[in-house]
Design a protein that fits this description.
The chain is mostly helical. About 45% of the residues lie in helices and about 10% in strands. Strands 1-2-3 form a 3-stranded antiparallel β-sheet, covered by helices on one side. Strands 6-7-8 form a 3-stranded antiparallel β-sheet. The chain has a two-stranded antiparallel sheet with strand order 4-5. The longest helix has 20 residues, at about 30-50. The chain is elongated. The termini are far apart.
């Protein structure tokens, strides 16, 4: 049953139903308060009819743990998603999930966007971009929706959806910015010389990894997943298991050619008794690359930019869209062209 209280020139609606915590909100008019109360009563009645119990005490941290274990048995949760949910758990973990508000989401986003800071565990955490935050909030919203649909959470609104207009207005979230950065020949020469010079202290064959990334257009995680058993010598191809896909990554195995010297580069890698060709952690590759760029004073260059370089080189060499996609494993031209930054001088034909 809904009750209404006048507070000055505003009206507060309170909805109470057995088995559920009271819900309340204040509106400028009584008619608006009544409309909201009617909707909440219908939603609570529907949840009661479906046997959905309220879990008022469950925190966001407990919900993340449940999602990671229970839902993880039903579908594959990517490392990216796990990482994003870990950051959600760190920032919002002590909040009661059913009482999470848009204000909580906005404050969490603000703290994540600000510069490097020390978290509650004493660890140094870097600030993130608006695009990164956009992805993180998407995973939070997905988790809340799944928990609600599976009866683990009573949520009458999506706090992420309510927060997004304000987050966009103050530019705390943003769409990913298309990068057009390609390494120059001089930069690549410096990087390779640096990696060769410091090879004795590095556990990673970074010079070969950089060449392989440019020759195959593969990401750090894809390079480190390649298996010796998935090489095919007669066709000089390799199989990439669980290739990135917008909807179905798991089981999306794709074969790609090892062009030019790439077959020889792979063949000279040691430790063939191991399962993986490059048995390293993706983060280690990224860290080594960043440190080299800092040491050489190369600005605004990411390891992922090598994928742009690889794609652009293939087009400059005269390969067609379909042929380039066979190497890069892109699903559509819309995705492929984001990685294509042709140099005007490459169009000359002698």
């Amino acid at each position: 049953m809904a009750t209404f209280q006048q507070r000055g020139d505003r009206w507060r609606a309170i909805v109470r139903r057995k088995g559920f915590a009271p819900k309340s909100r204040t509106f400028p008019t009584k008619s608006a308060a009544r409309t909201w109360a009617d909707r909440i009563e219908r939603e609570l009645a529907d949840q009661e009819a479906r046997g959905v119990a309220e879990h008022d005490g469950a925190t966001v941290a407990e919900l993340v743990d449940w999602y990671s274990t229970y839902v993880g048995q039903l579908k594959r949760i990517s490392l990216t998603q796990r990482g994003n949910l870990s950051r959600v758990k760190e920032g919002l973990g002590d909040k009661v999930a059913s009482k999470l508000t848009a204000a909580d989401v906005i404050e969490h986003t603000r703290k994540r966007r600000q510069g490097e800071h020390i978290n509650k565990d004493g660890h140094r955490v870097p600030g993130c971009s608006g695009a990164t935050m956009n992805v993180e909030l998407g995973y939070l919203s997905e988790m809340l929706k799944v928990a609600k649909s599976m009866g683990k959470l009573t949520l009458l609104h999506d706090p992420v959806a309510e927060a997004r207009p304000s987050l966009r207005l103050v530019k705390l979230v943003a769409k990913s910015v298309k990068r057009n950065r390609r390494p120059t020949p001089e930069e690549l020469s410096k990087l390779k010389a640096h990696f060769h010079t410091n090879a004795w202290r590095m556990k990673l064959p970074m010079a070969d990894i950089v060449d392989f990334a440019i020759g195959t257009a593969k990401r750090e995680g894809e390079i480190t997943r390649l298996l010796w058993e998935d090489l095919d010598a007669p066709t000089r191809t390799a199989l990439l298991r669980d290739a990135k896909h917008p909807r179905a990554k798991e089981g999306n195995h794709k074969r790609f050619p090892l062009l030019g010297d790439m077959w020889l580069l792979v063949d000279r890698q040691p430790t063939k008794e191991r399962q993986r060709i490059f048995p390293f952690k993706p983060d280690s590759i990224g860290t080594a690359f960043r440190r080299a760029c800092v040491a050489l004073r190369i600005e605004d260059l990411h390891f992922h930019d090598l994928r742009h370089e690889a794609t652009s080189r293939l087009f400059e060499q005269g390969y067609s869209i379909e042929q380039v996609a066979t190497v890069t494993l892109h699903e559509s031209w819309q995705e492929l062209k984001r990685y294509t930054q042709l140099r005007p001088e490459s169009l000359h034909r002698d």
